[in-house]
Amino acid sequence: MNDLPARPRVFAPLGETLPASWYADPGVFVKERAAIFARHWQLFAHESRLPAPGDYVAGVLAGYPIVVIRGRDGQVRGFHNVCRHRAAQLVPDGVGHAKSLVCPYHGWSYDGDGRLIKARDFGEDPGLDPAAMGLFALRTETWKGLVFVCIDRNAPSLVDWLGPIAVMARDYPLEKYRFYRDKIREVDVDWKAYGDNYLEGYHLELMHPALCAAIDVDRYTIDVHDRHEFFHLYGPRRDGGLTQGLYFYRFPVLMLNLYDWGASIATIDALGPGRMRHTNWYLFEDLSPEGKAERDRIVEWAIEIVSEDIAIVTGVQRNLNTGVYDRGRLSPKHEHGLKGFHDMVRRGVAEYDSGWRPTVRAG
What we know:
Elements: H1 26-37, E1 42-46, E2 55-61, E3 64-70, E4 76-80, E5 94-97, E6 101-102, E7 109-110, E8 116-118, E9 137-143, E10 146-150, H2 158-162, H3 164-168, E11 178-187, H4 191-198, H5 204-207, H6 209-214, E12 221-225, E13 230-234, E14 245-250, E15 254-259, E16 262-272, E17 275-284, H7 292-320, H8 336-353
Antiparallel strand pairs: 1-10, 2-3, 2-5, 3-4, 4-9, 6-7, 7-8, 9-10, 11-17, 12-13, 13-14, 14-15, 15-16, 16-17
């Protein structure tokens, strides 16, 4: 762990924010989609949603329709939710079960390992090779019960991508925590505006009275680990507070909060420039009826904090869109997290400009 340079405690000038145009420009979003979202692992499902062979979860990440399914061999695999015949969507978004993935357009069917089973009533075509017409596979790996996918076929392994987080979280039995409920919101906020808010404690005393009653904000810190592209957030609990644990933000959009009772895990799907879907999962080790009131108290407390954040950043996004504001100055005392976050965004955009593109499918 000594190779991870934490943020310096000397408050040096940090310079300016990203330009406001980057939070609404379709051209910038094209670059982010390819060089940031396609190249990084993204949380997609919880294994508890896939208990039996044939169970699947389908959705969209950064514009890519995706389905993950548990095969007959028990393995969870991910694919682009795209039929190889005429590009129809195979299954609707959401949770479901299917013995095979059957295209609703022309009836082509695929096994849980992606192999083409049958091209229904297709006719004689010597050029049709079923072995070459399986679904386009995604990198799919699990960690502690969480299912991640990656668009870029050449990405490092999930454990390598998590890096020190996997080591630091080893004492939290996340794989034993079970899904309790979620909260999903689609809002007119760019993913970066939400990340900006999450990665600074400057606003806490003004915006989050319930959070400040729970943690000692005077000791709140955010350490930037630039080489591994993650942030370690630390907020010690006050007496009677609800939030003592281990908190990470893994670039670009994974928010992982681990507690002794369970976990609050959030992620963002960037729907476009200035638009996002925020998904929060609440996992608990104890799902007994007797604990329901306490679980609901914790969840509602956490939901309220996110609601306060979304309310303020919705106004921020509106003002970023006006063209009046361009850049701001970063606080040397409070906003080193933003500086690290913005540097990671800049690197991704620069890599796209230099010609880097993800390998989105094999072959």
